[in-house]
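in:
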């Protein structure tokens, strides 16, 4: 194990311990929220004079390992300060004592070891935790006051926290005031509190043009610490993409006051989509462990509009780029796994932590959230498309239904696990037809649908050049989109598969090279066969190789759907296709990840068997899929049919005739 210097975001390297490199001080504040540490740093700048106690700020997430904490205690807590005064440690413990049991126990032992040591432990959220607060060595009135200072937040409260500690423990000037309450939720515009009338005036031109409204929800702590530039930048990108942003800073989606404001503004602004930047789950449903009780999910929002989950990574962009899984476990848990419980559409990481500056007095790197413009643009385009789905009349909506095909034999088209995919597709088409979607000539049943698909090219390499094709993409049009990909992606496809003319689905038609696309059009609704991930390969590798990048024909298929036919949504029918298994990060995909390259910011719906949430999660996290669960089919005897049934009857007759009728034996 080796010694590491602290890194932004409080992430803990598995192969070493963190040395914060701090010297002793009179007041030490340990917190997990970088926004809180930033607010305290700003307060320290406004307050500290030559007579003030010295202050150190630290992210206790960097001290989680026992060796890291022991090093910090020896270097900072056990050493005397320059003036030899008392020491005060304030611990804001997010998640309770079980999140940091070693530090929780050791700090109590530290406080008891010598006189003039004062320990104040408070919850890191708005929920009171008497157990950890009573573990403090300070009186409970002071502990409660410190907690309120930290929870109300903002520079003013942070400054008066320091003034209170100075007066109470170091006989400083009595110039502190009680914690100042900040509203649980408020509208924000350009980093400042605002109201609906001012917001409407600011965006009057865009609202007049009919731009849809998207609510941007984030924690109030960002507003309190002045960390709002990232959301102002996000709002600017949303507006560029045709969505009017309405920012709301709130304490929690479980807070009734916050929810009341959000639901009121959804109604008054006629918002069409929510972009949620808060973590965890707001689901108040009963425990799913109680199998005897049906789950009655209640959305936090009164209006049925889509909720996109945006990810504010707790790590740096460099760390994200280097992670094959995309996010570290803490971000996955708080910003993906728990929000999934609320049915949110998982999108992308739109911001990362970056160094703001080194605070000399507090001896800490203060951090800020920094927007990733390209990823934010992806999410803004997705939000615009969801809003368009809401506003567009059904008769004008173009939808693509994609059937899986593995192995790439004609007999395996639409091979959804536990689902009669062809018959289900016909049922879906009929339902949409009745709802006014532009669908014509729906096949009579699932067999008729498959026969219609077999009337043109499929993925079968043996019949590719023998069948006709209902739609194709010219090589010039394909390359126009291909050359917009990152250069590394272009080179990877070219190196693996060669030029597009060598692709097995590329044909020369009237002297022009074109990519053949498998599928049929029923009115303006497309029903197609998902292309193979490769050709001239072992079938298992073709489907499951985690490193196999898709060929030109695969990209051409999705490029045509998105850019030429311009579908408003894609439905992959049945478990499971191959799109969500393409190479790339496990979560928080980048523009270099192949599901992102193929699918783009397109609304995605996915009927999927209910008993396989693990593989369904791949589609949710890597292709922004809305999983629509279907039940498992009832168990029944398969029995024999057709020629096999006739053969079984003859065998039974033969067995019965043995030893009874020699003529029948012959």
């Amino acid at each position: 194990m080796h010694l590491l210097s602290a890194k932004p975001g409080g992430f803990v390297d598995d192969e070493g311990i963190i040395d914060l490199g701090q010297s002793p001080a009179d007041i030490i504040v340990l917190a997990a929220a970088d926004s809180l540490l930033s607010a305290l740093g700003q307060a320290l700048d406004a307050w500290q004079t030559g007579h003030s106690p010295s202050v150190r700020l630290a992210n206790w997430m960097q001290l989680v390992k026992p060796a890291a904490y022991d090093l910090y205690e020896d270097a900072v807590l056990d050493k005397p300060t320059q003036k030899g005064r008392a020491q005060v440690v304030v611990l804001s413990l997010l998640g309770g004592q079980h999140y940091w049991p070693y530090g929780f126990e050791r700090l109590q032992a530290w406080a008891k070891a010598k006189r003039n040591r004062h320990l104040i432990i408070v919850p890191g959220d708005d929920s009171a935790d008497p157990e950890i607060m009573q573990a403090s060595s300070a009186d409970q009135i002071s502990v409660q006051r410190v907690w309120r200072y930290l929870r109300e937040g903002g520079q003013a409260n942070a400054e008066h926290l320091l003034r209170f500690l100075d007066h109470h423990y170091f006989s400083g000037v009595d110039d502190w005031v009680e914690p100042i309450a900040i509203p649980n939720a408020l509208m924000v515009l350009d980093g400042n509190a605002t109201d609906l009338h001012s917001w409407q005036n600011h965006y009057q031109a865009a609202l007049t043009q009919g731009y849809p409204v998207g609510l941007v929800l984030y924690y109030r702590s960002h507003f309190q610490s002045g960390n709002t530039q990232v959301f102002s930048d996000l709002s600017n990108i949303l507006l560029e993409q045709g969505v009017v942003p309405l920012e709301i800073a709130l304490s929690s989606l479980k807070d009734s006051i916050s929810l009341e404001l959000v639901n009121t503004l959804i109604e008054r602004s006629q918002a069409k989509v929510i972009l949620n930047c808060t973590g965890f789950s707001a689901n108040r449903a009963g425990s799913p462990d109680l199998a005897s009780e049906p789950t009655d999910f209640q959305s936090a929002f009164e209006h049925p509009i889509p909720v996109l989950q945006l990810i504010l990574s707790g790590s740096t962009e460099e760390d994200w780029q280097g992670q094959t899984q995309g996010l570290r476990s803490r971000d996955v848990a708080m910003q993906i796994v728990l929000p999934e419980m609320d049915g949110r559409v998982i999108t992308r990481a739109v911001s990362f932590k970056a160094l703001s500056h080194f605070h000399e007095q507090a001896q800490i790197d203060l951090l800020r959230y920094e927007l990733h413009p390209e990823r934010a643009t992806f999410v803004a385009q997705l939000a615009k498309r969801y809003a368009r789905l809401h506003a567009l009349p059904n008769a004008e909506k173009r939808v693509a239904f994609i059937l899986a095909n593995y192995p790439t034999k004609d007999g395996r088209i639409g091979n959804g696990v536990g689902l009669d995919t062809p018959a289900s597709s016909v049922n879906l088409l009929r339902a949409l037809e009745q709802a006014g979607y532009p669908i014509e000539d729906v096949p009579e049943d699932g067999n008729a649908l498959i026969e219609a698909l077999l009337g043109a090219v499929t993925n079968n390499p043996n019949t590719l050049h023998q069948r006709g094709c209902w739609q194709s993409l010219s090589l010039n049009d394909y390359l126009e989109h291909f050359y917009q990909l990152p250069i590394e992606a272009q080179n990877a496809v070219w190196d693996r598969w060669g030029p597009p003319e060598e692709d097995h689905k590329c044909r020369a038609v009237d002297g022009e090279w074109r990519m053949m696309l498998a599928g049929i059009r029923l009115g303006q609704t497309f029903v197609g066969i998902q292309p193979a991930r490769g050709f001239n390969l072992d079938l298992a590798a073709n489907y499951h190789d985690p490193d196999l990048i898709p060929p030109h024909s695969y990209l051409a298929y999705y490029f045509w759907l998105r850019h030429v036919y311009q579908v408003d949504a894609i439905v992959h029918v049945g478990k499971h296709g191959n799109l969500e298994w393409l190479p790339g990060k496990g979560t928080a995909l980048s523009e270099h990840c192949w599901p992102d390259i193929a699918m783009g910011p397109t609304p995605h719906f996915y009927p999927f068997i209910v008993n396989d949430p693990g593989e369904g999660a791949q589609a949710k996290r890597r292709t922004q899929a809305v999983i629509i669960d279907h039940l498992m089919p009832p168990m029944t005897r398969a029995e024999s049919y057709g020629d096999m049934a006739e053969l079984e009857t003859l065998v039974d007759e033969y067995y019965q005739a043995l030893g009874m009728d020699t003529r029948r034996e012959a």
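note: The two ends are 82 Å apart (CA to CA).
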